[in-house]
Design a protein that fits this description.
Largest sheet: 4 strands, antiparallel
Order of helices and strands: EEHEHEEEEEHH
Distance between the termini: 46 Å
Strand content: 15-25%
Helix content: 25-40%
Oligomer: single chain
Strand order of the largest sheet: 1-6-4-5
Length: 174
């Protein structure tokens, strides 16, 4: 994954009013500049048309990835990097699963860790619910309770050392 251009630490600013930007300023268009004071609207002309442009946040999470630089919104972003290619698995539909690690576009461990925590939390709530029903005399729920306990244990055991991970245990029937 070859990096071509990389502009960092965008901040919002209000440029001096000129004849060229007066209409934009009057209509609330935001302006951003990078850490070197380069205006985003001028930087857009430096990118090649046949490359990918990746906008990322301070934590590295992907905000946008497009080939058309006109589609990008950089206000408040940590940076924009130009890439000759991106992983074949990347799409705008799984964008939240990716992050910029400073050198390359890669799977986001935090996304998968959050998914695991969410599944454990959901299972814990189900276990608590069924345990309460049983404690209050409901009968015939022990099997469901144990199914949720086995599911939660299976999720605990998921090894996230190899990403992406999509083979989550199947939820019990309720």
């Amino acid at each position: 994954m070859n990096t071509l251009r990389h502009y960092k630490n965008f901040v919002n600013y209000v440029p001096a009013r000129t004849k060229e930007n007066a209409d934009l300023l009057d209509n609330g268009v935001g302006f951003s500049k990078d850490e070197n004071g380069n205006d985003w609207y001028e930087l857009r002309n430096t990118f090649r048309e046949d490359t990918w442009k990746l906008v990322y946040a301070k934590d590295g999470s992907v905000i946008q990835c497009e080939q058309d630089v006109q589609e990008l919104a950089v206000q408040g972003s940590a940076g924009v990097v130009e890439l000759e290619e991106i992983p074949a698995e990347y799409s705008r539909y799984n964008m939240v699963q990716w992050w910029w690690d400073g050198e390359k576009l890669t799977w986001c461990p935090m996304y998968f860790e959050n998914q695991k925590a969410r599944l454990i939390s959901m299972a814990s709530k189900k276990i608590e619910q069924y345990a309460d029903f049983i404690a209050l005399g409901e009968e015939g729920l022990e099997g469901i309770l144990n199914s949720w306990r086995m599911y939660r244990l299976a999720v605990y055991k998921v090894d996230l050392s190899v990403l992406p991970f999509y083979d989550w245990p199947e939820k019990p029937e309720t």
